Amino acid sequence: MTVDPAMKGHGAALFTILVWGTTFISTKILLTDFTPIEILFFRFLLGLAALILVYPRRLRLTERKQEVTFALAGLCGVCLYYLLENIALTYTMASNVGVILSVAPFFTGILTHLFMKGEEKLKTSFFIGFAAAMAGICLISFNGSALKLNPMGDLLAVTAALVWAFYSLLTKKISSYGYPTVQTTRRTFIYGLLFMVPALLLFDFHGELSRLASPVYLFNILFLGLGASAVCFVTWNFAVKTVGAVKTSIYIYICPVITVVTSVVVLHEKITGLMILGILLTLAGLLISEGRIDIKKHSAR
């Protein structure tokens, strides 16, 4: 039985978000003895090593100008996005950052419409789904508490979401080159790590690996490096290549849902009625944006 390539793409996007939605636990554990920049550098260095072992064949580009696209993808998706996110968390509440980063699919849709005309058309359902999903994400993140704005932190989070949108477009462009996804992801990681080097000098980076002697720390850095980085960036890039940047990015909406469910199961945190309503709204927003729920049909009844 032949599986529809689009189904593979949607499956890859869903799998990626299921993993990325749980990474906060590993990051939270590692932050006990590691700085954010150390976690970021070690996870992508480990991810790069894994991709080299899996697919050691060298990527030979047919055009030199393609190198610029890979460099920009590494700068946006590996270096800037995570740095901006981590710095934003030092200024503003995690709930604010979570909500703002979920705007990335909206930015992706707008940028795709502006720079890749004819690639993926934006329908009314995309905007209705976005509104529903954001309402749900706000309910999940704030859970009845008051919204507290911090201009610096919130602006950094908005910038991070915009940077990820650019990364999605660059990934779609790279997919048109016809190279294997593992090779293109590996190339992106290399540039991301190179751009990260100046940040290592600016922030509190220490290279002692003795801390990884702890089984708990070792497991979590392996999960972030091998699972959330090596595997998930390949599956995400495959999804973008197969179903497009906009449809793939829409799955970001359910990242807060996965985070809540994981918190309840692993950390035994309580779930409230507002959170359940938020989850339902977010899932509805995803389905509407993907065109799985036909608004016109339901409104006509």
Which properties best describe this structure?
single chain, 74% helix, 0% strand, 301 residues, 14 helices
Notes on the structure:
The protein has helices spanning 5-20, 23-30, 36-54, 66-91, 94-101, 104-115, 124-142, 151-175, 181-202, 215-243, 245-249, 255-266, 273-289, 295-300. By secondary structure, the chain is mainly alpha-helical. The chain has one domain (5-300). Helix 1 runs antiparallel to helix 10, helix 5 (94-101) packs parallel to helix 8 and helix 7 (124-142) packs antiparallel against helix 13 (273-289). The longest helix is centred in the last third of the chain and has 29 residues, at 215-243. It is globular, with a radius of gyration of 19 Å.
Mean pLDDT: 85
Which segments are poorly predicted (pLDDT under 50) over 5 or more consecutive residues? Answer: none
Share of β-strand residues:
under 5%
Radius of gyration: 19 Å
Question: What does the main sheet amount to?
Answer: none
Distance separating the two termini:
37 Å
Shape: globular
Q: Structural class, judged by helices and strands?
A: mainly alpha
Discrete helix count: 14
Return the string of H and E elements: HHHHHHHHHHHHHH
Helix proportion: over 70%
Give the total of beta strands.
0
Count of the domains: 1
Keywords: Cell membrane, Membrane, Transmembrane, Transmembrane helix
Domain EamA: 8-141, 152-288
Family: Belongs to the EamA transporter family.
Transmembrane segments: 12-31, 37-56, 68-84, 90-114, 126-143, 149-167, 188-205, 217-238, 250-268, 274-293
